[in-house]
Amino acid sequence: MDLLVVDDEETLRSVVSQVLSADGFTVAEAASGEEALEAFRSVSHPLVITDIRMGGMSGIELLTEIKEHNPDTQVVIMTSHASLDSALTALRAGAYDYLVKPFESLDLISAVAGRAAEKARLVTQNRELLEQLTRANAELKEANLALKELAVHDGLTALYNHRYFEEAFVLEVARSKRYGKQCSLIFMDVDNFKRYNDTNGHPQGDALLKTLAQLMTTHLRICDTAARYGGEEFVLLLPETPKEAALGVAEELRRRVAEHPFPGGETQPLGKVTISIGVAAYPRDGMDAPELLDFADQLLYKAKNSGKNMVVWN
User: What region holds the GGDEF domain (predicted)?
Assistant: First the structure.
């Protein structure tokens, strides 16, 4: 472990350095607090042993500066019998331990430095483990969010899926009922989609559904919900929207789809890709979510059987 010995007495500094070098430490020396601080800022030593009384910056001042720069560094203070009160002050300021000069035994230097080095290693390991745990928690949180998104979104179109829509629809009708609001449901289906798949291939059919999803969401409000109901069926839930406004949205969407240059659209019976739409609204067409959905489905069926490429309402 790298270690910095700080003392303005060259002889004592040399003795401590020799003992610790023999113990396997890589020892750097500084003859003053100022020199030590400059060296520490260049190389953040995990362990510093410093005299408490030096000309210029004191050991306490150096300790304070070191702890501000790197709180994990372990500092051992060297003091005389006459300055034990200062050693206690240093401990309260964050020093790990202290050595009393003159040393009763050079082995004491090794023992204190060894304990301080072990503390420094444990602190470093704990910090690394904490950082790993923090990263793991962040990755787990991100993974959980991704799984949550996958659980409520359709894998092909990235729209909400059937399950999410049904829950959102029930909640929106209940909210509309509680606050006396209106909401509308647009139920749509791609006309002759099986023929499109048979003629152009399933990959092209998937591309069509993804493009349709983009056309659906281009002009939606944040509060609106677009979902893939199943196969080539899609729904739009429009909160606080009367039926007249929903009809405008449905007609605009029907027009955009009919005008979009889908590859292979010319092979369709109408010479282009089209959608049929049924529009229902609460409370006009039903008093709960299942009733509204069934009503919109009936209107969609009527549109499909009346020539397709149209919006039907009651």
Answer: 181-314
- Domains and their CATH numbers in the chain: 2-128 (3.40.50.2300), 162-312 (3.30.70.270)
| Angle value at C-alpha 290, between 257 and 157, nearest 5 degrees | 35
Integer Cα distance of 131 and 134 in angstroms:
5
Which of these, 130, 264, 299, 294, lies nearest to 192 by C-alpha position? 264
pTM of structure: 0.61
How many Å apart are CA 101 and CA 98, to the nearest integer? 10
Half-sphere exposure of 286 (CA within 13 A, CB side): 22
Active site residues: 232
Q: Could you give the strand order of the β-sheet that contains 97-101, starting from the edge strand earlier in sequence?
A: 26-30, 2-6, 47-51, 74-80, 97-101
